[in-house]
Amino acid sequence: MTGVITDRLTTIGADDLEALARGAAVLGTGGGGDPYIGRLLAAQALREHGPVRLVHPADLPDGAVVFPVAMMGAPTVMVEKTPSTERIGAAVAALAEFLGVTPTHIACIEAGGVNSTFPLVAAAQLGLPVVDGDGMGRAFPELQMVLPTLSGIPCTPMSIADEKGNIGVLNTVDNHAAEALARSLTITMGCAAIISNYVMSGAQARESLVPGTLSLCTRIGRRLDRVRAEHGDAVAAVADELGGRVLHAGKVSDVARRTLTGFARGTAIISGTAPMADPASRSAAGDLTLEFQNEHLMAVRHGIVEVTTPDLIVVLDTDTGEPVTTEALRFGHRVTVVAAPTDERWHSPGGIALVGPRYFGYDTDPVRFDARERP
Amino acid sequence: MRIGIDVGGTNTDAVLMDGDRVLAAVKAATTPDVTSGIVTALDGLQAGHPFPPADVQAVMIGTTHFINALVQARDLAPTAALRLGLPATASLPPMVDWPGRLVEAIAGRAYLAHGGHEFDGRPISALDEDELRRHAADMAANGVRSVAISSVFSPVNTEFEVRAAELVAEVIGPDVPVSLSHEIGRVGLLERENATIINAALRELAAGIVDGLAASIAGHGITAPLYLSQNDGTLMDVEFARRYPVATFASGPTNSMRGAAVLSGLGTCAVVDVGGTTTDVGVLTGGFPREATVEVSVAGIRTNFRMPDVLSVGLGGGSLVRGSGTDTTVGPDSVGYRLTEQALVFGGNVLTATDVAVAAGRVEIGDSSLVAGLDPADVAAALERIATDVADVVDRMRISADPLPVVAVGGGSVLLPESFPGLGAVHRPEHFAVANAIGAAIAQVGGEVDRVFAIAPGRRDAAVDEARQEAVDRAVVAGADPATVEIVDFDEVPIPYLPGNATRIRCKAVGDLRIEQAAGRRA
After folding, report:
1. Which ranges form a coiled coil (chain A) (predicted)?
2. Given an 8 Å threshold on Cβ–Cβ distance, is B392 in contact with A334?
3. For chain A, does the N or the C end have fewer beta carbons within 10 angstroms?
4. What is the pLDDT of residues B343-357, one digit of tens each?
5. How many domains does chain B have?
6. Phi, psi of B476 (to 5 degrees)
7. Residue A228 belongs to a domain
8. 3-class DSSP state for residue A170?
9. Which pLDDT score is estimated for B80?
10. Interface contact B293, partner A, CB < 8 A
11. Are residues B364 and B484 in the same domain?
């Protein structure tokens, strides 16, 4: 470490976005969408309005009014029907009007993937600071899968806006119902909508958000750049930033995909190789099987579950350390799998019920990134 | 007989072929006007194996001219990009992520209009014909000479792009060419639009180059039809080349690979093309190069058209050799075109890969006495390093555990050993130095489909059949003999977060060129 990287950012400008987006793709654990379009949109907004101030959750006043913003729908659609920035701000404005409150801060509900960038657009447009934190610390596919759900914060009232000018405000009985209703609205809106939900106070944000995740994304992105410039070990650098461990290195030898209920489910087998350039540290023998549903959710070796959701299973290009999405996984790709810890609150009984392996249909107890069984 | 020509940055290679047999092969210097280098090459073929021009059935040319024009930002037409999608997509207008100098070079003008479709084919908004006419009038007033039209989800529904092209032509006149995105790229609006704008900007140049190529062939009394080779190793006729110059961008490495396949008789193999500075490795499956699956950046512009998957390593005949024993390194820096001044065998003082090959007796170049003093152990170590590095690249390109034969082409392939550990023998076919021209000469004709299908329960087979039939039909329309057309590539990827089991299907069909019939349609 050369010490140039500060631990905590205080602003985000257009120049920070490439690093932030790259780190966000790492936290996307194979899903969450390619942050490329989000990065371009945020760059436009930050160039137009100037850098956005970043506030750590610990520094939020109790009475702050925090509005998370996100994109809901298919990233595949978003790369074709690119979102309009004014609709991102409009989603916040509509909800604020409905609630009769004035937002003081914008927040990120999902740091993994493309949703790391949309809040920056809203914040730039509305002239508000962004909270340096998010509701997951990673990427998950459904609206209720956020730590604020565990804290009892309701998803609704929430707003949902399309690019044509349609805006809805939903009020639902619980956060699962919000997911179901918003999902069908999103599809009708052309499969890519902007949402604002989980409005919370500063006190609630301090309690329920994962702190520092935008800084973490940027740090990962910058470190990848630097390690590559120095011809260092990019994969090891990512594992280090995440506090995780290299689980496996090898070559993708099989990918099987199927679509069920809108999720790209599948299995990828990573055959262990004896890397020519590398020592025993990565010489995990045999095959590792990855199970994914948009995101990577379980890794199995020799019939033994090595790690599962909610901990992070990150697949990186072995040479460059670039994150590899589940869509881009292909035969022959040299990849390294890193297992890393998630926010501890996800390991509570409520967290496991929400995002544990059984919720996704895998008949296993959760296994942590270091292969510990749950107590 | 056929003539294959590859116009590279340095050399123009040409071959005269009878079936798969090479009758004559020549190398000439590439000239700035392209055509005089071709004329010299054709003269060389006549000298090497005299032939009646009437016996030539087809001429195939691969050229890097268009990609070089883009990279150097020269000879590009003033171009307008018209996008249909409002009220969506407005925040990221056409050319948003382009290097400024290229926007300037094409005097790029961006227009946004209503239109576009949702992922399932519903319109986002109706076309506004008055709006389109106003835009077209503005283009005309500003000297636009080529137009690129993109519409959201046009790979799903082409209707709006086609209609907008008619309206623009009504206003701006039929002489201004219009390029449509659904004919050029895939899903991914910005990338597809970028490729379309590049194509539009090259169309004036394409008309000139194609005329020049045709004239230089005609000047030799050859009346056979002329084809250009595309990125995927298939051919396009000259009319197609006028319309889609962007499709020639990566034909160089593709032709090398295809030529290597024919020369070696191997349809599925790794091809190692060793030049002076780099070694390019690609993989052929069923005779065609595997495609890159990620976005490809061309001259700093992100695009998503079809390019071969090629891995390059800085290792060639001019690579610098350093160290000894297990610390020996070769490349990535190279003396490049100064090899004949700086290498030891030419009296220079730099130890290069070529010197090592000469010292080991693999090849006779320059004065071998000048490397007689090298330590045989160091020479062996350097050759071992080259073999290990290249074998590693080849291994990275393998997609299965099955053995993959290796074919070496290019002037620098003398650096490679007779066999690679774990990979087997290295095939070094005859005429390896002109493999690219041979690749052009034997190119086939293809058709492709790349679309998102909404697959209803139990309808998967029907969608797959539809895609396959459409690919076959397109190949036949492009000039393939229907009796020889077969599906060479099929890929089906479910799209996450989309309802209705949306699945992206890519399918490619290829067949032999219908030569007899083609002879009557010379452009």
Report:
1. none
2. no
3. C
4. 999 999 999 999 999
5. 3
6. -65, -45
7. no
8. strand
9. 98
10. yes
11. no
User: What is the predicted pLDDT for the residue at A332?
Assistant: 72
A365 vs B505, residue with greater confidence: A365
Would you say residue B501 lies in a domain?
yes
Q: Rounded CA gap, B417 and B425, in Å?
A: 9
How large is the average pLDDT for residues A316-333?
Answer: 84
pLDDT tens string A226-256: 988 887 899 999 999 999 999 999 888 888 8
**Do residues A190 and A266 both lie within one domain?**
no
- What domain range includes position A28? 11-213
Letter for the amino acid at A31? G
B422 & B495 share domain: no
Q: Which parts of B15-96 fold into alpha helices (H)?
A: 35-48, 65-71
DSSP code of B342?
Answer: H
Q: Which residues contact B272 (CB under 8 A, 6 or more apart)?
A: B279, B280, B281, B390, B393, B394, B406, B407, B408, B409, B410, B413, B416, B426
Q: Report whether A318 contacts B396 (CB < 8 A).
A: no
Read off φ and ψ for residue B95, nearest 5 degrees: 70, 20
* A315 pLDDT above the threshold of 50: yes
What integer is the mean pLDDT of B276-294? Answer: 79
Give the CATH number for residue A44. 3.40.1610.10
**Same domain (yes/no): A165, A242:** no
**Which domain covers residue B465, as residue numbers?**
443-511
pTM: 0.84
Return the CATH number at A299: 2.40.390
Question: Bridge partners of A275?
Answer: none
In a domain, B210, yes or no: no
Interface touch B498/A276, C-beta < 8 Å: no
pLDDT tens readout for residues B175-187: 999 999 998 888 8
Looking at CA atoms only, how far is residue A241 from chain B in angstroms?
Answer: 26
Q: Indicate whether B333 and B433 sit together in one domain.
A: yes
User: Where do the H-state alpha helices sit in B72-220?
Assistant: 100-105, 129-141, 159-172, 189-218
Which residues on chain A are in Cβ contact (under 8 Å) with B495? 74, 76, 259, 264
Domain-ending residue, one of B438, B459, B490: B438
For residue A85, give the nearest of B91, B499, B502 by CB distance.
B91
Instruction: Say if the Cβ atoms of A191 and B116 lie within 8 Å.
Output: no
Give, in order, the Cα–Cα distances in Å from B74 to each of A325, B77, B139, B190, B194. Answer: 37, 9, 21, 23, 17
- d(Cα A306, Cα A362) in Å, to the nearest integer? 13
